[in-house]
């Protein structure tokens, strides 16, 4: 008898609202979702649908108004800041549009920062993986540069290498190819897919790009703060068609 592995992240009946009575916004409205281990999940929806809010609450970067959030088998709904920070550092990788690189560190030091924060040097296997990431992302000639010496696309590549370098079990990615040209974007998406397929990592990616979403194993669609549909692996054309239909309904 096979058993289904526990989800690496879960939200259950989550509500998230902003504003006061006069300006009340329901960003998430009774959302329940399991993120399965070893799976590449894309979250899509029209602007204002709640997709970024959903990722932020799942990652513990924002609190919920009500409901439950479980991350890496830990209920983080009311967890303390110190415990949440340590959990994120050890279990989670982040790829966000803001990059969040340390300006005083060079590229290699930024990529190795998760190891430094966790108090250990990379193993031989981890070091080899980091070098593969640096080469694949076209950063070999930039390892001694600091963030201000890089283009936006190059900074995004550094952020991606840093997120993948320590092989965290779960990675949250917010429009990870938004600042990349189409060729580099495809290479990055293939790398993310390989991290899932070959190393068992789990990825949650918020994107508006049907091409990016086509690399995912599973696509979750949001509208008006609610999950309205879920699809398996789909072509960019199929995803575009569904998104267009959602926009018309909205």
Question: Brief overview, please?
Answer:
The protein is an alpha/beta fold and 250 residues long. It has one domain (37-61, 82-249): P-loop containing nucleotide triphosphate hydrolases (Rossmann fold), CATH 3.40.50.
Provide a descriptive summary of the structure in words:
This protein has 250 residues and is α/β, with parallel strands linked by helices. The protein has a single domain, classed as Rossmann fold, CATH 3.40.50.300. Helix content is 37%, strand content 24%. The chain contains nine helices and ten strands. The strands form two sheets. A six-stranded mixed sheet has the order 6-7-8-3-9-10. Strands 2-1-4-5 form a four-stranded antiparallel sheet, covered by helices on one side. A hairpin with a 2-residue loop joins strand 9 and strand 10. Helix 5 runs antiparallel to helix 6. It is globular. 38% of the residues are buried. The mean pLDDT is 90.
